[in-house]
Amino acid sequence: MAPFFDILSFLVSAETTTQSVFAVPTTENFAHSSCHPSVFSFPTIPGAELINISASSVLNYTKTSLLPGTEATKSYTIDFCNITITYKHTSHNESINVSIWAPKPDDWNRRILALGGGGYAATFDHLYQTAAAGKGFVAIGTDSGHPSGMTSAFDTSWALDADGNSNTHLTEDWGFRTLGEMSVIGKHIVEEYYNRLPDYAYFTGCSGGGRQGLVLAQRYPKAFDGILAAAPAINLETFIPAAYWPTQVMRELKVYPAPCEIEAFTVAAIQQCDALDGDEDGTISMPESCHFEASRLIGKELSCDGEQRRFTKEAAMSVR
């Protein structure tokens, strides 16, 4: 996880190569007057129209947070202007929310950090935004028009319309369309709030957020100055069936190995294939070269929750 923080620290501390001609107001004369819906407007986006703008000052907000692709959580206490832009695409019944957390002017590092979600949720809201704002970024995210947050990561009900048919438009919103729009809206709001554009804009996400990062790089290459796409969940047409395949195999064989058996098979596979890349770090980094045979463990003893068992042929077939 350290490389991520190294990269992020570099982004925060990188020398600014351009200077704005606008003077940035100080916090004292800025926060209360500028954090109001009347200050903000909706940018020109073809085929999109504004529904609502909300903005309110948030003081001493404390939350444990982290950044995508990391495990190191930290408690942050931040002051920020909480701005939400709600809009829709013409002729479509939807509500897309772009959340923008803008630190006080004195705390802003003159950068945007857009944050992806995971699973089918386009954003994880405060889980990521708190850390980003706490590090001085304007933190932005989009819900792509359906429920967000970790509790919604596996909710796919939004992808069907009232008749049970595929909601192609909303799926495309999630797949790519709202990601580019998030960048346009975020930069526009930043300019209105701070009276200047950001020096740099970055995106980071993990898993589903990593997929979003690659989509942005492919479809909207000018949207961000840097993209960190961790563990991207891509090639969904094969990725999702592959995720369900182990369950299907166990159902067909009517064999469900105990967690301790799965763990033992995993340990054995790592022991055999870990060093294939020349580095014994507890990770199989070259799975294509790993030819582990679960059958070689058949009959061997293992301790399962304090009980002695033997690997069975059926369990080996299931794992294979």
TrEMBL record:
Q: What class of enzyme is it?
A: hydrolase
Q: Does the keyword Ribonucleoprotein apply?
A: no
Q: Which UniProt keywords apply?
A: Calcium, Disulfide bond, Hydrolase, Metal-binding, Serine esterase, Signal
* Coiled-coil ranges per UniProt: none
Q: Is Hydrolase there in the keyword field?
A: yes
One term of GO molecular function: metal ion binding
Under Enzyme Commission nomenclature, its number is 3.1.1.-
Q: A Pfam family name for this chain?
A: Tannase
PANTHER family cross-referenced by the UniProt entry: CARBOXYLIC ESTER HYDROLASE (PTHR33938:SF8), FERULOYL ESTERASE B-RELATED (PTHR33938)
Family of this protein: Belongs to the tannase family.
What's the protein called, per UniProt? Carboxylic ester hydrolase
Species of the source: Aureobasidium pullulans
